[in-house]
């Protein structure tokens, strides 16, 4: 039985290596008869692999596209390439790919041979991105992503050291949490988890987390808030002294396309308007950036440091070298 299984896997590897094989070629490669090849092909079909047989000149066996994705066999080089690609994809800018990459990376890491891990680490560590917008200090290790993702899937309680937002690097506190979801916002990763000691839901930035220890302690499912809404509010409002609500005369999707998810929460207010809620050091800061969108808007509420639009307007006019009453607030064209 073991020999048959090895032969079937070898057959699968051959079918993946090139488009078409004749029965005679496969029999020679496997050291069996063409009758055995036909039986092994049927075994693959029974396992869900769409192996087709085409008659005539140029025909033979080929691995076709199916309705479901069957397991794939990867050699060492292919496994390294996939693992490296998944790690790099977690920091990419293609919408939705980062989350899928983390799930796939957790599955691959579970079965990746230890002899290949060093090669994967070497390639990733020697690769840099042309996009310099990401601070090295904010980089999340692949090990942290994988450990958290696997703990979510189990699910099991985790323990980790967590750095405060404005504390020293050595200012760490141990946290015990029941992980629920990973959420990506721009180029940052956040964990939504139930904080065991604080007995409440919390948001953790992964780049501030120390090594994650999986305890093996299983926990029952809790009623949880929506991860996207919860994390969105946590990172765009709660850390700031001033929170401002502004109604914008534009559909929510239009505004979301122009405002980073980590900067504000945006809720529809009818089909042609939305309400933006954002936190900052002062409401003037939020008003200024909303004004830059060039869309009709009105402040609904400001909590904390108040907004002084007249002062802000005068300051902007002064910066432009203009005074109230100038024609349209436009720069005058140079004299010919």
UniProtKB/TrEMBL annotation:
GO terms for molecular function: DNA binding; DNA-binding transcription factor activity. Keywords: DNA-binding, Transcription, Transcription regulation. This is Putative DNA-binding transcriptional regulator YafY. The keyword Iron-sulfur does not apply. InterPro entries: CBASS_pafABC_assoc_protein, DeoR_HTH, HTH_11, PafC-like, WH-like_DNA-bd_sf, WH_DNA-bd_sf, WYL_dom. Residues 4-59 form the HTH deoR-type domain. It comes from the Bacteria. The keyword NADP does not apply.
